[in-house]
From TrEMBL:
It comes from the Bacteria. GO terms for biological process: polysaccharide biosynthetic process. Coiled coil: none annotated. The modification N6-(pyridoxal phosphate)lysine is found at K180. It holds the Pfam family DegT_DnrJ_EryC1. One of its GO terms (molecular function) is transaminase activity. Belongs to the DegT/DnrJ/EryC1 family. This is DegT/DnrJ/EryC1/StrS family aminotransferase. InterPro entries: DegT/StrS_aminotransferase, PyrdxlP-dep_Trfase, PyrdxlP-dep_Trfase_major, PyrdxlP-dep_Trfase_small. The active site is at K180. Keywords: Aminotransferase, Pyridoxal phosphate, Transferase. It comes from candidate division TA06 bacterium.
Length: 372
């Protein structure tokens, strides 16, 4: 079996976690602060707050920014559900703007067209580790006085115009699920340069407690969105290895790119436009138009039958069952996102992959093409 993903864990991470276990301080301990400080330094932001997941981080941002029923937040229809759910948690309404088919990120021109008097924010997603076009998005936000939220959960280490992903918005969130660039098992981080916003999010993640209040003094309704020290120790060591981790992922991605160019030229692979530096999260390709939809689904099943990890990344959000009922969209509303969703699939991508593994993956794709 060639797995779809596998975390890059070494003896250093294991030793750090065991040390926390032996210390007896499993939560609200020193590892949290160490991880937060290291993360803030790495991304160049003033405040970093460790949380229980990227989703929790996004929710903290929407809550702390005061989003409420009647507000609209413009976001991408081609993303993981968390980037919409964090808007819905606050009773606000997600408004979709179609994607750029070349980058798979939200199209700034479509953001402009989606602005109404009720718009409060733009939530931009750095899909598959490529930052959104923040220069243009920031211009739209400035023109219409909109907040900018970055969902950088897939883009740790990526850059746009030599500036780190997660450093463009009012606040940003990262996720550390096991298939991400670094992992804490489950966990996330929220970033901001705003002192008051950071203080609010810090309180909200800890059941509404304030730093200057008593342990059981709750000043507002909050959540248990804390990260435990075990997870933070794992994340801190992972972050200290980030340069090597990203290089390994880039090298593996480049081997795939070469194989697709040589043997599967009709497939579309992820590109890196000028001025961008992708941080490889997953390896996604798009089947040719004649295989979109059911053909792509058959390819996924074929690879799975050969013990090759393969999955559909992503279905469109506006056609998800719970959002169809809520937002009343229909097929055809966002053609670029829908075309991408009908053609995209992810293949094995992790540090353990050998060139032979990758050649085997491509060989079975070729086999499907030749006999379909």
């Amino acid at each position: 079996m060639i797995k779809l993903a596998s975390p890059n864990i070494t003896r250093r991470e294991i030793d750090a976690v065991v040390k926390v276990l032996k210390s007896g301080t499993l939560s609200l301990g020193p590892e949290i602060l160490r991880f937060e400080k290291a993360f803030a330094r790495y991304t160049g932001r003033k405040h970093a707050l460790a949380v229980s997941s990227g989703t929790a981080g996004l929710h903290l941002i929407t809550r702390a920014l005061g989003l409420k029923p009647g507000d609209e937040v413009i976001t991408s229809p081609y993303s993981f559900a968390a980037s919409v759910n964090c808007i819905l948690y606050q009773g606000a309404r997600p408004v979709f703007a179609d994607i750029d088919p070349k980058t798979l990120n939200i199209d700034p021109r479509k953001i402009e067209a989606a602005v109404t008097p009720r718009a409060r924010a733009v939530l931009a997603v750095d899909v598959f580790g490529l930052p959104a076009d923040y220069r243009k998005i920031q211009a739209v936000c400035k023109k219409h006085k909109l907040l900018l939220i970055e969902d950088s959960c897939e883009a740790l280490g990526a850059k746009y115009k030599d500036k780190m992903a997660g450093s463009f918005g009012t606040a940003s969130a990262f996720g550390f699920y096991p298939n991400k660039q670094i992992t804490t098992g489950e966990g996330g981080m929220v970033l901001t340069d705003d002192d008051r916003l950071a203080e609010t999010m810090s309180s909200l993640r800890n059941q509404g407690r304030h730093s200057l209040g008593g342990w059981l003094a709750h000043h507002e309704m909050g959540y248990n969105y804390r990260m435990a020290d075990i997870n933070a120790a794992l994340g801190r060591v992972q972050l200290s290895r980030i340069k090597g981790i990203l290089k390994t992922r880039k090298d593996i991605a480049e081997r795939y790119l070469k194989l697709f160019q040589q043997r599967l030229p009709d497939f579309t692979v992820l590109q890196q436009p000028k001025g961008y530096q992708r941080s490889w999260f997953v390896f996604v390709a798009l089947v040719p138009q004649e295989l979109k939809g059911s053909g792509r689904d058959r390819l996924i099943k074929h690879l799975q039958s050969k013990s090759i990890g393969c999955a559909h990344y992503f279905p469109t959000l506006h056609l998800q069952p719970y959002l169809l009922e809520l937002l009343k969209h229909k097929k055809g509303d966002f053609p670029a996102a829908e075309d991408t969703a009908d053609r995209s699939f992810a293949i094995p991508f992790h540090h353990k992959l050998t060139l032979r593994d990758q050649e085997r993956v491509v060989q079975f794709i070729e086999q499907f093409i030749n006999y379909s």
